Predict the 3D structure of the following.
Amino acid sequence: MKNFLNEFREFAIKGNAVDMAVGVIIGGAFGKIVTSIVNDIIMPPIGWLIGGVNFKDLKATLPSVDFGAGTMSQATINYGNFIQTLIDFAIIALCVFLLVKAINRVTRRKEAEKKPAPPTPSAEERLLTEIRDLLKDGRR
């Protein structure tokens, strides 16, 4: 049991696990922000433009069936919520794409800065290169 706890502690303390936990928490909060933007800012004007439609109210009502056990509530297919969820997903996917693109750009810049400049040849190497070039030309 002690060994298990030590392994778990090492895993939890590693940077990758902590980074992943922070990413999940921030991602959840970001999802709520995007949902609010879609529901409260984007969809009302779109609904207004197409005639005052509230997307949350868009649904298809299925016919009710009485099996003799009493009245059944009507089942609905809420395609308006589905449309809003698709828009949420599209906005989140776009934001994640832009974030990853920015991170990749910064990473490439850092890698380019880390690459050392090619070493300048020593005096001996320059002399040997000149001798090689003269021999290629046929001059002695």
